[in-house]
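Work Package 3 committed the consortium to producing structural models of liganded targets before the mid-term review. Because experimental data for this complex are still outstanding, the team generated a predictive model from sequence and the ligand definition alone, so that downstream docking and mutagenesis planning could proceed in parallel. The input record is reproduced below exactly as it was submitted to the modelling pipeline, together with the SMILES string for pyridoxal-5'-phosphate.
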Amino acid sequence: MTRRMRPVDLRTDAITRPTPAMLAAAGRVMPTVRTRRGSAARQLESRVAAMVGHEDAVFAPTGSTANLILLMAVRDRGELVVLEAESHLAWTEAASVARVAGLSPMLVEGSGGIVSATMVGDALDDSRLSDHRRTAAVCLETPHNLHGGRVPPPAAMAGVVAAAHSRGVHAHVDGARIVHAMVATGAPLPTLLGGADSATFGFNKGLSCPSGAVLTGRRAVIERARRDLALLGVSNQPMADIAASMCLVALDTMVERLSEDHARARSFAQGMAEVTGFRVDLAGVETNTIMLTVEPPLNAPSVVRSMAAAGLWAWAVDHRRIRAMTHRHVTDLDIEHAIVAVADAVQAGRPRATASIARGSRVQR
Ligand SMILES: Cc1ncc(COP(=O)(O)O)c(C=O)c1O
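The resulting structure, written out as tokens with the ligand in place, is given here.
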């Protein structure tokens, strides 16, 4: 294999750089101290609220912040929050959920990351039986990041939301990549959300913005979330308009092209399914994420190290799983190179492995 100079970086889509149109828009903004009516931030909030079908919205610096201010807005300290066991909120944000929002996570393990109405209903009933604590919210994630970017069926989402509502509990959707779900399924956002009360809509992943997420929901909840954002030190920030102006450009120019990332993810997954030592759930590759399961005696961290040496960067989620993500800076040729790099890495890590690879697999657009 001829070694290429530029590594193929499939660790995350959060490394995408802003486009020239975004930088030009940012350069035209005249930030004001009070970023309200008519400002780029306010325009963005209105547009996203309309897309999601919610009353109001607030612009936040990141998806984690948007999730956090939602939880702060709907809870009393010491209450519970139901999270899917491998959701981003459970894996990465649990410390701030507990320490800043003061909530106790109650984990529900979904099937392939997808929770059912019965699972959530049981969790809500059990929490009352055990210590009579109120549950502030049930949080869902779409697409499910650690389950290969799968999009939970809208009917499943609606069932969970109904189970939460029947017990008077707020339903929130973490949609850091919800726009991927929309493009992959062709379903409008309100359908994908299944009637949830609030949602986080991310801009700093495949949409290529350097920062930004919008939290949508009912007016009263968003007002509290805005206050809580200020408590975290983010208020009347003139620079929010600069970030928001880039997000507005992303809405106009970056959404449709996500289907190219999805096609490349499928291409990579199909190639990887041919490499001895890996399992890929091809049917589960719906968006830009590919979750590879490594068969013993291989283990994910050492395979990832060998892959990096061969020119492919990916992320070892744990000892068995490797996550790869396609994004705007990954080309068809990069995908071909990535498959070869993995096969090389397998052979380096296990000399007798018979790694067969599918060469020349092109992206089907
Ligand atoms: C599903 C999900 N939710 C939330 C986040 C957090 O987003 P941010 O990095 O903008 O805080 C991520 C980040 O990758 C994510 O994958």
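Reviewers should note the following from the model. The domain at 257-360 is CATH 3.90.1150.10 (Aspartate Aminotransferase, domain 1). These observations will guide the Year 2 experiments.
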